[in-house]
Amino acid sequence: MGRLVAVLLGMAAVLASAAPAYGDIYREVAADGSVTFTNVYRKERKSVLLRREPRPAVPTPTPKPRPVAGAARPYAALVAAAAAEHGLPEALLHAVIRAESNYDPHAVSPKGAAGLMQLMPDTARELGVADVWDPAGNIRGGARYLKRLLEMFDQDLSLAVAAYNAGPGAVIGSGSAIPPSAETQRYVPKVLEYYRRLQTGG
């Protein structure tokens, strides 16, 4: 009898050491006295639990913070104020500023456009922007101009953005379509892609 107990205990130890993760070990004794070890509990066979495998704690995933529109972007407060004043999405103004100057208030184009939203001198004067180097005035003027272009082209964002880059005359002269110039053809999808990404927090 002592030998049988030793054999059974030895088998139990081997099974326990070889058991897969989360595996419980049960002993079943048949009517003929034969012993079976298994990891499946069966009530009808009067399974006896020999070893319970501890279940590891499942780590709770850390929720990702939801992006906040305009948060942590340069000139966010000025953009928010100009967007509210002219009924424009903040993300759209940010997209234009990024494409035009990459947030450099001292940027100047070869054609003379200046500031964050790259206003041409004549356009700036028409919009009442006294100092194109002042970020607040430049953003307000650019927002006012973009709003005007959206109204001119029946809220067609692609045409308004094209007109911001090439001028409304170029858009009208192209049959109310994006002008074929390589610069404008690159500019429009770039702004729209920035706009889409900013809307989704990208």
From TrEMBL:
Keywords: Signal. InterPro entries: DUF4124 (IPR025392), Lysozyme-like_dom_sf (IPR023346), Transglyc_AS (IPR000189), Transglycosylase_SLT_dom_1 (IPR008258). SUPFAM superfamilies: Lysozyme-like. One of its GO terms (molecular function) is peptidoglycan lytic transglycosylase activity. Residues 13-65 form the DUF4124 domain. Residues 79-172 form the Transglycosylase SLT domain. Residues 1-18 form the signal peptide. GO terms for biological process: peptidoglycan metabolic process. GO terms for cellular component: membrane. It holds the Pfam family DUF4124. It comes from the Bacteria. Belongs to the transglycosylase Slt family. PANTHER family: MEMBRANE-BOUND LYTIC MUREIN TRANSGLYCOSYLASE C (PTHR37423:SF2), SOLUBLE LYTIC MUREIN TRANSGLYCOSYLASE-RELATED (PTHR37423). This is Transglycosylase SLT domain-containing protein. The lineage of its organism: Bacteria, Pseudomonadati, Pseudomonadota, Gammaproteobacteria, Pseudomonadales.
